[in-house]
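Here is a typical protein record:
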Amino acid sequence: MEFPRKKDAAAITAKQAGDAAEDRALAHLAGNGLKLLARNYRTPGRGGGEIDLVMREPDGTLVFVEVRRRASRSFGGAAASVGHVKQRRIIFAARHYLMRLAAQPPCRFDVVGVEADGIEWLRGAFDAS
């Protein structure tokens, strides 16, 4: 019988932890009235972007959500870890998502930080400019 290598086992654990963080973020957002439209939306091809959650506010605003998981708020916590390069990839994926729609609704980019001690929801964390 072949056992998974340590690296493979760690990747599975990280994926499961990431999925659990997305589940917590989704439950938090849904509890605040947002409706899930897509999960893990990816652009085709290499070098594109991914959006963890695409949600809709009750007023019709489309919300592109990046979920970040961290063990603590050290070094700015989960939300502070969404740098310029990651923002550009999310914006790229959001533009791709919007091309499918007949009309463009109001939009914003949120970050949900999931840490051991709770959830931090930053509305309008960055913009597409």
